[in-house]
Amino acid sequence: MRQIITLLALASAGVTATAADGIKLNQLGFLPGADKVAVVPAAAAQGAAAAFSIVRAGSDTVVQSGTLGPAVNVPESGDTVRLARFASLQTPGRYQLRVAGLPDSPPFEISASAYQAVNAAALKAYYFNRAGIALDAAHAGIYARAAGHPDTQVLIHVSAASPSRPAGSSISSPKGWYDAGDYNKYIVNSGISTYTLLAAYEDFPAYFQAQRLNLPESGNGVPDILNEARWNLDWMLTMQDPADGGVYHKLTNLRFDGMVMPAQATQPRYVVQKTTAAALDFAAVMATASRVYAPYDAALSTRMRAAAQQAWRWAQAHPRDYYRQPADVATGEYADNDVSDEQAWAAAELYITTGDAAYYQALHAPDLAATVPSWSDVRGLAWLSLARHRKALGAAADQALIARRVDGLAQQLAAAWQQSPYGITLQKQDYVWGSNAVVLNQAMVLLHAYRLNGKRAYLDAAQSGLDYVLGRNAVELSFVTGYGARSALHPHHRPSVADGIAAPVPGWLVGGPQPGQQDKQDCPQPYPSALPARSYLDHACSYASNEIAINWNAPLVYVSAGLQALTPAAQ
Ligand SMILES: [Ca+2]
Ligand SMILES: [Ca+2]
After folding, report:
1. How many angstroms separate the CA atoms of 382 and 405, rounded?
2. Signal peptide position in this chain (predicted)?
3. Does 18 score more than 60 pLDDT?
4. In what order do the strands lie in the sheet with 72-74?
5. Which helix (H) or strand (E) segment is 252 a member of?
6. Which of the ligands is closest to the CA of residue 501?
């Protein structure tokens, strides 16, 4: 009975949400030369020739008009929509899209710097999540706060004990980023997050060399994206046991902190269990960092390369040390019982950095699929790195295979994009925990393929991923805090909850819609809908749809910079 009532409540809430639907588009806007698409609810735009127009914002001055595409039903969001396409509008300005019978769209810009601010904010968000440092007003503005989690005396958990570091002894493991809405630090999730920032720099160096983030390190001669990544890399280096090269899986409390500021969270901290996944992710990131930082700090580069190789050797000797959450630990697990992808990724990065063909052999490239990256499936990262560095690879590398894998995955994504009623790459099964990062990782793959072969459809499909998270979605919301006319306001993020400031810490991508609703028993209000694309709750309770995380922001950084760097100028 209770279940039936719940389902009825959700169904009626879903109807209400559908009835209120308006025009959905990227609320920040577009680069002049970009593809431009909006989603229009079909019910309000009757007739095969239903028209739309673009007006100057706040006026009736029509600058362009067009005809909506066919009406298509969308099972995952329960609506019927038509697309408005206006790529030919390239004149910079501030506009709204108008369809008779509907409120005008939110205003949006066409601008040559459309994504520079959101890109900088998405990177600055990492600074706001730094552990072990006070954020001062000069760099953090109203989000200044006291330091938390110095992590200079971290206990060795019994699961991590070794002869030279017995249980209860302590190590110093400062700095790093808080992983997400909580205050713990996890090597596995740091792996893909830090790598993706370094990959953005490797692919778009000129863009990032020109960027200023107002960090404490700004002006030191190192690009700010690398200054920010360094904060986490310094921590990661401390997570390797110098005695054997193994890497601790995480640095954590035994239990999650309350919804308090970092300085008020003072539970004892532990490093927990060395794992194969942690060692391999660490090896991949340090191998990448070794080549990225070489021009700026040769000694650091050498140290990172040695650390990567040491972790690799440990992992080869411990191929199946999977994470098992100890009974007294209740924080995030990042457990993964398939480390074949981590092995391949580490091998690829070590091959690129060292040129040693033995690492390429360890990839087993002919058997390695290309998939959209996630923290637990990093095969795709191996292919993306090989593609990036293909011109410098030795004879061992199969150039044709590298191109085929990256292009093959992009073809699949572009096919889904072409079939999609919303014109996006997300499909019904992609509405998983962190779906907003799924769509952006899809866009990242597409940008790599576009760099490889210049197929315009890949660039346009990548654009749709950024459009989706910035407002072209069923809930008509920008999922990036502080950006867009209507954006997420209540992320599951301890500082945003506890800082006494109404606006959330800016620049964070929230997890996004997914129908699991694993947090509904912890939330004081129901989700507005059970439909996959609408199963999103903008409430701080909602860790399953509204948390923030370092691995989700990283592809936002990559894609927003990539579109700025790669989109051709207007015709
Ligand atoms: Ca894995
Ligand atoms: Ca707040």
Report:
1. 11
2. 1-19
3. no
4. 37-41, 79-85, 72-74
5. strand 248-252
6. 2
**Catalytic status, residue 538:** yes
Q: How far, in Å, from the CA of 417 to the mean position of ligand 1?
A: 26
Does 501 have pLDDT greater than 50?
yes
Rounded CA gap, 401 and 421, in Å? 33
Q: Are the CB atoms for 290 and 308 separated by under 8 Å?
A: yes
Q: Which ligand is nearest to the CA of 540?
A: 2
With beta carbons less than 8 A apart as the criterion, state whether 143 and 128 touch: yes
Rounded Cα distance, 201 and 461, in Å: 22
pLDDT at residue number 48: 60
349: left (phi over 0), alpha (psi -120 to 50) or beta: alpha
> What's residue 4's pLDDT?
31
* d(CA 160, ligand 1 centre) in Å: 21
Looking at all shown ligands, the one closest to residue 495's CA atom is 2
Ligand 2 centroid distance, CA of 144 (Å): 12
Alpha carbon of 381 to ligand 2 centroid (Å)? 35
Q: Structure pTM? A: 0.96
90 has a pLDDT exceeding 50: yes
Q: What is the pLDDT of residues 513-549, one digit of tens each?
A: 999 999 999 999 999 999 999 999 999 999 999 999 9
Whole-angstrom Cα distance, residue 469 to residue 36?
15
Q: Is the dihedral of CA 1, 14, 511, 452 positive or negative?
A: positive
